[in-house]
């Protein structure tokens, strides 16, 4: 609805984030330039034809949060090596929920771990999800990439601490809020790059000629204070790999 309203106002360029907004903008116009900032692969989600040659009226930046699930699981096991079962918290309303679930399922199978998938589409689902994790004797948790989870990071981090659940997150903001560990690209940098594209388009550039920008650096953040609260000893090799250690 909002995308259609903006198109009706004949704006010069649309900026869209997260993915649902970008998909809505694409559905609303094939002529007005659209710049997006999304956490998933824009080719797989149908936003552009290719990264180097987007085609059409869309381009932008991706921070690839969705594609890092397997790497996060690997890091979580490095931190908590004796885990046998993993929980995955997913928002079923997210367009990438199935992809993220499949990636983690593949990764857990390869590592010989058991996977429990928990759905949370509202704040009221969080408490029951953690109760289920504890009941199933889940050893650790992966929080999938979703803007809804990020907006309620304080509640999720508090629940993980209350239930003594080691968890890895998809954004530094979780670790800063007291979460155990996060692994992600720099979101702010991706948005900055997307804003530069908006400026170039306003000066006459065409989205089809502007390659989709991808992150070049990924940040591992460990909250040492939370690790101590959970009774975890962070391996020196993992600490050495961390880009930031919160004490």
Q: Summarize this, please?
A:
This protein has 247 residues and is an alpha/beta fold. It is built from eleven helices and ten strands.
Characterise the protein shown here:
This protein is α/β, with parallel strands linked by helices and 247 residues long. The protein has two domains: 2-63 and 186-216, 3-Layer(aba) Sandwich (Rossmann fold); 67-184 and 219-246, Rossmann fold (3-Layer(aba) Sandwich). It is 42% helix and 19% strand. It is built from eleven helices and ten strands. The protein has helices at 2-8, 19-28, 69-79, 97-111, 124-135, 147-151, 153-162, 172-176, 187-202, 224-229, 236-241, and strands at residues 14-16, 34-38, 58-62, 85-90, 114-119, 140-143, 167-169, 181-185, 218-223, 244-246. It has a seven-stranded mixed beta sheet, sandwiched between helices. It has a three-stranded parallel beta sheet with strand order 1-2-3, sandwiched between helices. α3 packs across α4. It is elongated and about 55 Å long. The model has no long low-confidence stretch (mean pLDDT 94).
Distance between the termini: 45 Å
- Helix count from the secondary structure assignment: 11
Instruction: Kindly report the average pLDDT value.
Output: 94
The structure class reads alpha/beta
Q: Which geometry do the CA atoms define?
A: elongated
Please identify the top-level CATH class of the largest domain.
Answer: Alpha Beta
CATH structural architecture of the largest domain: 3-Layer(aba) Sandwich
User: Residue share in helices?
Assistant: 40-55%
CATH superfamily of the largest domain: Response regulator
Largest sheet: 7 strands, mixed
Q: Into which percentage range does the β-strand content fall?
A: 15-25%
Taking all Cα atoms into account, the compactness measure Rg is 19 Å
CATH structural fold name of the largest domain: Rossmann fold
Tally of separate domains:
2
Number of strands: 10
- One letter per element, helices H and strands E, the order comes to HEHEEHEHEHEHHEHEHEHHE
Q: Give the uncertain stretches in residue-range form.
A: none
- Biggest sheet strand order reads 5-4-6-7-8-9-10
């Amino acid at each position: 609805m909002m995308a259609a309203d903006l198109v009706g106002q004949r704006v010069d360029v649309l900026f869209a984030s997260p993915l649902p907004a970008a998909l809505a903008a694409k559905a609303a116009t094939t002529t007005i330039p659209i710049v997006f900032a999304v956490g998933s692969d824009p080719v797989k989600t149908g936003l552009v034809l290719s990264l180097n040659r987007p085609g059409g009226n869309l381009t932008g930046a991706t921070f690839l949060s969705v594609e890092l699930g397997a790497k996060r699981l690997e890091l979580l096991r490095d931190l908590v090596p004796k885990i046998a079962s993993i929980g995955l918290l997913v928002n079923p309303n997210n367009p990438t929920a199935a992809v993220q679930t499949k990636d983690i399922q593949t990764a857990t199978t390869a590592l010989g771990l058991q996977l429990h998938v928990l759905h949370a589409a509202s704040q009221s689902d969080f408490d029951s999800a953690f109760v289920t994790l504890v009941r199933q004797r889940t050893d650790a948790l992966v929080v999938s990439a979703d803007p809804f989870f990020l907006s309620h990071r304080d509640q999720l981090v508090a629940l993980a601490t209350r239930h003594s659940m080691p968890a890895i997150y998809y954004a530094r903001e979780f670790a800063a809020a007291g979460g155990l560990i996060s692994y992600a690209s720099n979101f702010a940098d991706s948005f900055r790059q997307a804003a530069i594209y908006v400026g170039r388009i306003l000066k006459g550039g065409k989205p089809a000629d502007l390659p989709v920008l991808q992150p070049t650096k990924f940040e591992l953040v460990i909250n040492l204070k939370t690790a101590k609260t959970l009774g975890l000893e962070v391996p020196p090799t993992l600490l050495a790999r961390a880009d930031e250690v919160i004490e």
